[in-house]
């Protein structure tokens, strides 16, 4: 190991990495080795069953997701980090979901886009490690590379993968982001986290579209997060009523998880709610012009779906809203939208109110 001469030095460096991570706003840092053969085979089975849907990028890299040494040659360790994101100022999620006139946006997307923020912090952490150990090679990633981040986070002791396939930490629930640094430093590794879901099936039972097809098995094609964010085509008819007022993502499986009673509110100011998106009216959102959409989602993860899918999602939610003159008028205002996909969803929504 460059710059280190003893196991004591390695342990000291790990302690320093954890402290640096805390200073940079991360709640936990863990270190994992690179072998995750069981997760690799589970990924390949998931892909063979086409449960990735239209996410071709999942299939494109295949086994590389479990082999970081192929992504960054020389990698022998994965430094995993997590940062809490639950906005402290957000309207109660359950209240928003129960009000069909409001639009529900996944809590992770209410503030600034986490990708750049976490990646910049991880880069600073990696720079500190590099200063301490000259000649080391590393790369930092935040949901931006083909890595099975939850599996490596589990191996690094940050939590276990729950039945809903999200990572759960017994002291912090699941409302947190993950990021990784791939390194060639032979650092001491942490103990992998053990699972503590027990016999609980709350997440499976609550899923509006039954996307959790079995314990620890998610069919993305049925998941509302996939339907509202990843899918760029028409939303299948069979899922539209079940979507309710969820217009960007879905948090139901996290909202009912008993472990989230230990969840910590975000301390990062960039994760506070922006533009009132914690409890926005559907009619108001549907009236946004494309210019307003781009302005109000600047620096937000929401922008990635684009204006067309934004309108598509809101049209479905308006179709599920309580019938009112305002709702019907809002839908009718988009009945001649230049997007055929939006027009189709508006037509479906109007038909719900005609009944």
TrEMBL record:
Residues that hold [4Fe-4S] cluster 2 according to the record: 207, 223, 250, 253
Active site: 143
Enzyme Commission number, as recorded: 1.17.99.6
Catalytic activity entry: epoxyqueuosine(34) in tRNA + AH2 = queuosine(34) in tRNA + A + H2O
Major localisation: cytoplasm
UniProt binding sites for [4Fe-4S] cluster 1: 197, 200, 203, 257
InterPro entries: 4Fe4S_Fe-S-bd, 4Fe4S_Fe_S_CS, QueG, QueG_DUF1730
GO CC annotation: cytoplasm
Pfam families listed in its UniProt record: Fer4_16, QueG_DUF1730
Biological process annotations from GO: tRNA queuosine(34) biosynthetic process
Subcellular location(s) per record: Cytoplasm
Co-factor(s): [4Fe-4S] cluster; cob(II)alamin
Domain 4Fe-4S ferredoxin-type: 185-217
Keyword Cytoplasm: yes
Keywords of this entry: 4Fe-4S, Cobalamin, Cobalt, Cytoplasm, Iron, Iron-sulfur, Metal-binding, Oxidoreductase, Queuosine biosynthesis, tRNA processing
Superkingdom of the source species: Bacteria
Binding site for cob(II)alamin: 65, 143, 167, 178, 225, 250-251
Subunit annotation: Monomer.
Functional summary from the UniProt entry: Catalyzes the conversion of epoxyqueuosine (oQ) to queuosine (Q), which is a hypermodified base found in the wobble positions of tRNA(Asp), tRNA(Asn), tRNA(His) and tRNA(Tyr).
HAMAP family, alphabetized: QueG (MF_00916)
Name used for this protein in its record: Epoxyqueuosine reductase
Taxonomic source organism: Povalibacter uvarum
